[in-house]
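Researcher: Please predict.
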Amino acid sequence: MVKKVCEIVKKQLALSEDTLITGRSKFSELGADSLDTVEIVMGLEEAFGITVEEDSAQSIVTVQDAADLIEDLVMANHN
């Protein structure tokens, strides 16, 4: 899940392929502002067929936070 989130973050932020992103990477450290973060969340919603509530979206700080949230939402949708 983290790998897919990293790919989406790179695409949304127009980062080069050799930019190192890990689960511990903070969106702010990657140059994302609040609008970029909204666009990342929208990209994740589209990629995974989920809806992220605004409160949940605001709690996302790192790539791992996003991956964990998506995993929870995907699991909830399949149950």
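Model: The chain has one domain: 1-78.
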